[in-house]
Design goal:
The protein is of the alpha+beta class and 438 residues long. The chain has two domains: 6-155 and 318-437, FAD/NAD(P)-binding domain, CATH 3.50.50; 165-309, Beta Barrel (Elongation Factor Tu (Ef-tu), domain 3), CATH 2.40.30. It starts with 5 loop residues before the first strand and ends with a helix. The chain has a six-stranded mixed sheet with strand order 6-2-1-7-17-16. Strands 10-11-12-13-9-14 form a six-stranded antiparallel sheet. A three-stranded antiparallel sheet has the order 3-5-4. A hairpin with a 6-residue loop joins strand 12 (263-269) and strand 13. The longest helix has 23 residues, at 415-437. Helix content is 34%, strand content 17%. The protein has 13 helices and 17 strands.
Length: 438
């Protein structure tokens, strides 16, 4: 029986990787890319896998989260990482590429593959058959509206304001305490108390910290969202503005003193295991170095490790926990898969990883085989487990990080040793998985 082509929509990192994986499994694929017929506000070329921001894929060392993801992708035959390695440029401890050569090589490589047909046209509605959606954070309006109707829920397309996320074991529990305001329900929040002097020092640092410049199309979107004001903008409105907003101490008392702090920074549990904690109300447009400097002034966060720093940018993503399985299939249509920033993963390497798994599973569906999930001890497996099982109410995009991996059996205090153990476990489990399934 003739195998019908799988359709991949979007020629970014995720779509390029997905199309390659499908073809490598012997299944024909049609890759749709709307450029040059139509450009998004962020794209400038017609090439596949254009890197629209940095030319860096993150830390190269395998005992770093991004580097571990690189190595997992190498083990599974990623075309994106193979070309990144081939076109790497000096970047210290990071994997960075000559972005022009990188994208041009990928475009030519896919165009030469006998099972890949590249069609330069905009897709305005989800087609029938086996489909991989990889349209990224700037999905075209018509397709975004079609997807919103298909999901039956509000499709997330807005000026995204995400707060930093902290690894739980790096929060100083001798200072932070569990409590909910007015003791309503269980003590669900970790609270970092401030006295007046600490608060004023923090407020002054926040008011003078350096911000990131928004792009023109992002600045136009940002002005409509008063409810998503960056924490530094709240601070600049007055000395006490934050104390009447996200840092209000009302209804909270420190159980060790039975007194109400002058101000309180609250952290909300981000994952089921309680390994990650979100800084409530701390959406920010500060530069990343400034975020670390200023937020580590908060009592209890002086040694905090951030798995995601605050971001503010125009973004489009699905509420993945309500819609997506760890196989990257839609729950209500198993022949439709999604990958990349559209499903709430963050960063080039995570988008590539989503494209790889979605491509493998789309090919398996076309061949009449069961889709696969990755071991949760791998960075890829943990990332897709997270986006499919996080709290839908508070879901925000997540980059690869060690905080989402299952804890090690033995607690290891030294961070670098701990990350090395995570790496060794991940690569061992991935090797066994690959032998069994691929």
């Amino acid at each position: 029986m003739e195998i019908q082509p799988v359709q991949v929509i979007g020629g970014g990192l995720a779509g390029t990787e997905a199309a390659w994986q499908i073809a490598q499994h012997g299944v024909p694929v049609i890759l749709y890319e709307m450029r040059p017929q139509r450009f998004s506000p962020a794209h400038h070329t017609e090439q596949l896998a254009e890197l629209v921001c940095s030319n860096s894929f993150g830390a190269a060392a395998s005992d770093r989260a991004a580097g571990l993801l690189h190595e997992e992708l190498r083990q599974l035959g990623s075309i994106i990482i193979a070309k990144a390695d081939e076109h790497a440029v000096p970047a210290g401890a990071a994997l960075a590429v000559d972005r022009g050569q990188f994208s041009q090589d990928l475009t030519q490589t896919l165009a030469r593959h006998p099972l890949i047909e590249l069609r330069r046209q905009e897709i305005r509605a989800i087609p029938e058959g086996i489909v991989v959606l990889a349209t990224g954070p700037l999905t075209s309006p018509d397709l975004a509206e079609n997807l919103r109707r298909f999901t039956g829920m509000e499709y997330l397309s807005f000026f995204d304001a995400a707060s930093p996320i902290v690894i739980g074991e790096t929060i100083n529990r001798e200072i932070a305490f569990f409590a909910s305001r007015y003791d309503k329900g269980e003590g669900a929040y970790l609270n970092c108390p401030m006295n007046k002097q600490q608060y004023l020092q923090f407020w002054q640092a926040l008011c003078t910290a350096e911000q990131t410049e928004l792009k023109d199309f992002e600045r136009e979107t940002a002005k409509f969202f008063e409810a998503c004001l960056p924490i530094e903008e709240l601070a600049r409105r007055g000395e006490d503005t934050m104390r009447y907003g996200p840092l209000k101490p009302v209804g909270l008392s420190d159980p060790r003193t039975n007194e109400r702090p002058y101000a309180v920074v609250q952290l909300r549990q981000e994952d089921k295991a309680g390994q990650l904690w979100n800084m409530v109300g701390f959406q920010t447009n500060l530069r990343w170095g400034e975020q670390k400097r200023v937020f580590q002034m908060i009592p209890g966060l002086e040694n905090a490790e951030f798995v995601r720093l605050g971001v503010m940018h125009r973004n489009t993503f699905l509420n993945a926990p309500q819609l997506i399985l760890p196989t990257l299939q839609f729950k209500n249509r198993p022949t439709l898969l999604a990958a990349g920033q559209l499903i709430g993963t963050e960063g080039y390497t995570a988008a590539t990883a989503g494209g790889l798994l979605a491509g493998i599973n789309a090919a398996r569906l076309a061949l009449g085989k069961e889709p696969l999930t990755l071991p949760p001890t791998t960075m890829m497996g943990a990332l897709f487990e997270f986006i499919s099982s996080a709290s839908p109410k508070h879901f925000q995009p997540m980059p690869p990080n060690f905080g989402i991996l299952p804890p090690l059996q033995e607690k290891i205090k030294n961070k670098q040793q701990r990350y090395g153990y995570y790496r060794d476990r991940a690569l061992t489990d991935l090797k066994s998985w690959k032998i069994k399934h691929l």
